[in-house]
Write a structure and sequence with these properties.
- This protein is 62% helix and 0% strand.
- The longest helix has 29 residues.
- It contains 7 helices and no strands.
- It has 165 residues and is an all-alpha fold.
């Protein structure tokens, strides 16, 4: 795009998404808008108009963003949404990970998280049998890691179940 976009804006995220499409499915980032327009069977000018932050009423739809994400595997829009929601986007692995290895990782992370929580409910802990805010904050990173490992395992198993592997 030739227009200066506000960093972190939805339009900036879309611009990055089209650059990603160009880099992964073309020979340069600048080709992304042409590749995406071809998928939709519209002119690149039509798509550019929908990306213009100064033009209202013809913005690109969420459904189209999902279509691009699925067709091209670009994560820019997901990363932007996660940041808007106060989080981060962590893509699940698509290939190259064995189920046994992912199961072991999930179990290890879960064990560490559960051990932390049990330690927090010990009568000798900061809050006794009740978990305090400090103990909860300390446990959150380990629980997050356990959820991420379990999500990776779930993704792999689902791909196998659907015959994608």
């Amino acid at each position: 795009m030739s227009k200066r976009l506000l960093p972190g804006s939805a339009h900036d995220a879309l611009d990055k998404m089209f650059d990603s499409i160009g880099r992964s499915h073309g020979s340069a980032a600048s080709e992304g808008i042409y590749i995406a327009a071809s998928l939709l069977d519209v002119s690149h000018w039509t798509l550019r108009a929908q990306l213009n932050p100064d033009k209202t009423g013809s913005e690109i739809s969420y459904a189209r963003v999902v279509q691009f994400t699925r067709a091209f595997g670009c994560t820019d829009a997901a990363e932007h949404l996660a940041l808007c929601a106060g989080g981060v986007f962590v893509p699940l692995p698509r290939e190259g990970d064995a189920v046994a290895e992912l199961t072991a990782e999930a179990m290890r992370e879960m064990g560490e998280a559960v051990a932390r929580i049990f330690a927090s409910t010990s009568p000798l802990s900061e809050g006794g049998a009740a978990i305090t805010a400090n103990e909860a904050r300390a446990a959150l990173p380990e629980v997050h890691e356990a959820l991420a490992a379990l999500s990776n395992l779930y993704s792999r198993l689902r791909e196998k179940a659907e015959g994608a592997l």
